[in-house]
Design a protein that fits this description.
heterodimer; A: alpha/beta; Rossmann fold; Alpha-Beta Plaits; 2 domains; six-stranded mixed β-sheet; 25% strand; B: mainly alpha; two-stranded antiparallel sheet; elongated
Chain lengths: 349, 301
């Protein structure tokens, strides 16, 4: 089940997105990486590569080891064993070189609310020793990119949650890193703001020659990635393009509205040997090649059918099939909620 | 909060793609880049201090209360036993200066804990600069604003009948700077370990008042009972308040007997500690604590 496609991942042809990946060395190489905190094994031996120019997503529930992996790749934590390189530099022995080449947007904001947007960027530029002559033009460029140039002199405490996140993305790009890490870039934002953040990220991929490494526990966001790794309990259980992962599940989801649901479920079991249940108010079951199955359904089912819908597998189904559980949304929702509260308090200060 | 996100469609022309990207190369880490980091961390402290006028004002209220209320109130009580020719306010003025510096320096170190809670510390910790640069910048920043607060108090010297003699003023500023640096280093060292803001504030409050009361800011160091005498000699603040009082008294016409009684100097078992040694002790303590703070912040998970 656990397909470790990581090793040959880099040699794959360029995924959709238009960027030619040619023969540049991979942006991130991870092999046999583990990290324990006392008795707790947060990361339990993972291997993967991220090609230069790729958008790579880590998908998994909270506590799966996503943030720990990002922390190690950003040199904020030391691996317990195994090794990792980012932009060709070892994350332990060449820490400064790694830091010069990466940009970071953390799960929780790391902006200084007492400073203006521009002052936050200037602080960053000085800390990264960006050549003085380049600071002004580059600041304008990244602030334009996220649509905050007009608000640059306002205090960050007056920014909305979405604006703060965009400012962080701009700041992460200021020193033109090779790899941009986005740790849950849209967590705690409302759906509309989330999708607008994604428009900026997609736009950024067109403008800058950059590798993006992101973590998320939102299935729909993983669709934006060229490739995703599904991580659960500190291990990678699958790595591939979203399309290939969905194809690997094989089965389509069929939902039918009937005059008598109970009779339909019984008949599906008797006639086709299919296990069906009621989800979202419709009789639901999985079957290979759903479109071809529908005519048989009409021919052999005696219960009148009012409507049929066939859908390709979603990443939810993929996650379910690889881990046996649904992504623990209940848990995710509660942490999101707490973050939002924290942000509100922060905004008020 | 009302401003909603602008749509990305409205930003620069699509033609400005890769070609227009401004090439930025982050140079290798060097002494120069570390100094740039020290300077920007220092400047951030100053900008924040300027923005936070309320903090600037409130941290002066307590020393002012001591000088005006306690100073005036106690001078009538002290009047009988107090050597003639010296105002009680003059006597406590060096202690009040030290106090104004003490609170500001501790608050400035507290901002590290604050930065940690609100994430900004991380922005500094992942930068390609040495952690030493960040800690040093922070300590210098705290020392600068604390000294500034001390200077504001110094402007009120006339209330305590302390003359505006340039040599005296410069001496006092130098001593305040030294004290500010050491206290900030102490605070930063504590902030490396204590992660919760409330815990940090509770602990420092618990330490700051005893430091102040044991420093001889409000009473002379001579003729104390043995236990108190020992405690005052352990308090680092003593080694700044003593020299500051000596400097103030040297610029006034104080009868020798009163001078000897009120500013007897710091003695170790009868040996008079010279002023240069007092100040060196404070400086060394500051540097040691700075070193510990740097070591603490350089640790990686």
């Amino acid at each position: 089940m656990a397909t470790q496609a990581g090793a040959d991942g880099a040699s794959e042809p360029a995924p959709a997105g238009g960027v030619q990946l040619e023969t540049r060395p991979p942006a991130v190489v991870v092999s046999g990486l583990t990290k324990s905190y006392g008795d707790i094994e947060a990361v339990r031996g993972i291997d993967f590569e991220v090609a230069a120019g790729e958008t790579f997503g880590f998908l998994g529930p909270n506590g799966a080891g996503k943030s720990t992996t990002i922390k190690i790749l950003c040199t904020l934590a030391r691996p317990t064993s195994g090794r990792a390189t980012v932009a060709g530099h070892d994350v332990v022995s060449e820490r400064d070189a790694v830091r010069r080449n990466i940009g970071l947007v953390f799960q929780d904001t790391t902006l200084d609310n007492y400073l203006s947007g521009a002052q936050n960027l200037r602080f960053h530029a000085e800390l990264y020793a960006v050549p003085s002559a380049a600071v002004g033009p580059r600041m304008k460029q990244v602030l334009d990119m996220v649509g905050l140039w007009d608000r640059r002199d306002s205090l960050v405490s007056t920014y909305s949650g979405g604006m703060q996140r965009r400012l962080e993305i701009a700041r992460g790009l200021l020193h033109a890193p090779h790899v941009l890490f986005l740790d849950e870039p849209t967590v705690g934002l409302d759906p509309q703001t989330r999708s607008s953040i994604w428009e900026y990220i997609n736009d950024l991929k067109r403008r800058e020659d950059i590798t993006i490494f992101l973590t998320t526990h939102y299935m729909d966001e993983a669709e934006h990635c060229d490739r995703i790794a599904i991580i659960d309990h500190g291990k990678i259980v699958a790595i591939d393009t979203p399309e290939a992962l969905k194809a690997s599940v094989g089965k389509d989801r069929v939902q039918i509205q009937t005059a008598d649901d109970d009779a339909a479920i019984k008949e599906l079991a008797d006639v086709f040997g299919l296990e069906a249940g009621i989800h979202e108010g419709a009789v639901t079951f999985s079957v290979e090649s759903g479109e071809q199955f529908v005519p048989q359904l009409f021919a052999r089912l005696s219960v009148p059918i009012r409507s049929v819908s066939v859908s390709r597998p979603s990443l939810d189904d993929v996650f379910m099939s690889y881990t046996g559980t649904t992504i623990r949304d209940a848990e995710a929702t509660s942490t999101d909620h707490m973050r939002q509260m924290a942000q509100r308090i922060r905004g008020r200060r | 909060m009302a401003t909603q996100t602008a749509q990305p469609g409205g930003i620069a022309a699509p033609d400005e793609g890769l070609a227009a990207q401004i090439r930025v190369a982050v140079p290798e880490r060097s002494l120069r880049s570390d100094l740039r980091a020290v300077s920007i961390v220092w400047r951030r402290e100053l900008i924040r201090f300027r923005r936070d006028r309320l903090r600037a004002v409130t941290s002066l209220i307590q020393p002012l209360l001591f000088l005006l209320v306690l100073g005036t109130g106690l001078s009538s009580l002290a009047g009988r036993n107090f050597p003639s020719g010296v105002d009680f306010k003059t006597f406590i003025f060096p202690g009040v200066l030290a106090m104004s510096v003490l609170f500001t320096a501790v608050f400035s170190a507290a901002s590290i804990v604050w930065d940690r809670e609100f994430g900004f510390l991380r922005e500094m910790l992942v930068a390609p600069v040495s952690r030493a640069a960040i800690v040093v910048g922070k300590c210098l920043g705290g020392a600068t604003i604390a000294t500034f607060q001390g200077i504001v108090m110094l402007c009120l010297a006339w209330i305590a009948h302390v003359p505006y003699n340039p040599v005296l003023i410069l001496t006092l500023i130098g001593e305040l700077l030294l004290l500010s640096f050491t206290i900030t280093a102490f605070g930063v060292m504590m902030a490396a370990r204590i992660k919760q803001f409330q815990a940090f504030m509770a602990l420092t409050q618990m330490l700051v008042l005893p430091l102040f009361f044991l420093s001889g800011a409000l009473y002379p160091l001579s003729g104390l009972p043995g236990w108190l005498s020992v405690l005052t000699r352990i308090d680092p603040l003593t080694y700044v308040v003593g020299p500051m009082r000596h400097a103030v008294f040297s610029h006034l016409n104080i009868p020798p007997a009163a001078f000897a009684h009120l500013s007897p100097g710091i003695t170790w078992n009868g040996w008079l500690v010279p002023i240069w040694l007092s100040l060196t002790i404070v400086a060394v303590m500051g540097l040691v604590m700075l070193g510990i703070a740097i070591a603490e912040f350089s640790k990686t998970e």
